[in-house]
Amino acid sequence: MTVLSASVRADRSGLLMSVWWPVRSVTLAALVSGVVVCAGAGEVAAAPIPDGFSEVPPRTALSFAHTPSGTRVGTANQTDARPGLSIVKLFVADYMLRHGDGSAEDRDLAQRMIRDSDDNAAERGYAKYPQSIDAIAAEYRLTSTHGGRQWGGSVTSTADTVTFLEAKKTTDVDSPILGWMATAAPVAADGTHQNWGTGQLPSVTGTKWGWSDFGPSVVASASFGSDFSVAASTFGTTDQHTGDVLGAFGPESGQPSEPAQVPIGEVIDHYNTGNDPLLEQLANLSPPGWTVPATVLRPAP
Question: Which residue among 67, 240, 253, 294 is least crowded, i.e. fewest CB within 10 A of its CB?
Fold first, then answer.
């Protein structure tokens, strides 16, 4: 028998009560001390579930990283060097912010590159720092990323883009780039709507989009959330790109299923097989907003 003392405070009819009880179940002790989540106290959105990568068509390369565990998932072509499109503006902007001359002009150009996907800003920035993409590739070990004579002729991979985003999140959390991705303009400088691809995944905080202006359609997007980063590139349209991305995550077009929740009072009643009056009182005092996943309700011992 494991004994644990705990205090639960609840306000009922204006009466603040404190209840102490002996816990006779290891399962209940663990539940109270480590599993209970107080609803409404700042819920953390979960990363999308990458369970459909094997179904992604070859036209799309896709990479995903789970930040807390370091787990990475990718399609077979995730390291292919594809047209960098406006995704490489992330690298140009990062170089300008950290290795440029520190001017207000550089910061303004970098912001326009990320928030508005402004090609003119990228042309000016890359003309001033033509080494920027290759320098960032070397710094972050982006093995498929290479700068071109013009920024638009550069290449990168979805795996490299995820590596870059994860590095920014973990080693440069205050980078303006992350903030600009999180406040991207709804419509880019050239009139393109920025609301597709990885930006449609649940729990996304910020996104950078890229698309081709000439030749066959090529599109890309890269996003991050509090506990993940994801990047995709498609030889196709934005609709095809978005469909491929959403189809790779979760059971319903990228929307992860939410576990059923039950009130903590119901869980306490379930495990209170000895009809302990103190546990019954605790169950009655538990606020209805306190819930746990229903999977904890195993058959009572």
Answer: 294
Give CA–CA dist 18/285, Å, rounded: 10
Collapsing DSSP to helix, strand or coil, 198 comes out as helix
Beta-bridged to residue 224, according to DSSP, are: 206, 229
Q: Which residues of 114-137 are buried (b: 16+ CB within 10 A; e: fewer)?
A: bbbbbbebbebbbebbbebbbbbb
Query: What's the pLDDT tens digit per position in 108-129?
Result: 999 999 999 999 999 999 999 9
The structure's pTM equals 0.70
Q: How many CB atoms lie within 10 A of CB 106?
A: 20
- At residue 290, the pLDDT reads 73
Instruction: Name 290's bridge partners.
Output: 38
E strand segments, 101-175:
155-156
Tokens representing 260 are 């059923």
Cβ–Cβ under 8 Å, residues 247 and 253: yes
Q: Kindly indicate the confidence band of residue 269, based on its pLDDT and cuts at 50, 70 and 90.
A: confident
Closest CA to 81 of 168, 149, 142, 165: 142
- For the chain, the 3-state helix, strand and coil shares in percent, each to the nearest 5, are 40, 20, 40
Asked whether the beta carbons of 81 and 156 are under 8 A apart, the reply is: yes
- How far, in Å, CA of 22 to CA of 249, rounded? 44
Amino acid identity, residue 221? S
Distance CA 138, CA 12 (A): 61
> What is the spatial distance between Cα 11 and Cα 83, in angstroms, rounded to a whole number?
60
The larger pLDDT score, comparing residue 181 to residue 264, is at: 181
| Number of Cβ within a 10 Å radius of residue 283 | 18
Distances in whole angstroms, Cα of residue 200 to Cα of each of 4, 121, 209, 230, 247: 45, 26, 12, 11, 11
Type of residue found at 211: W
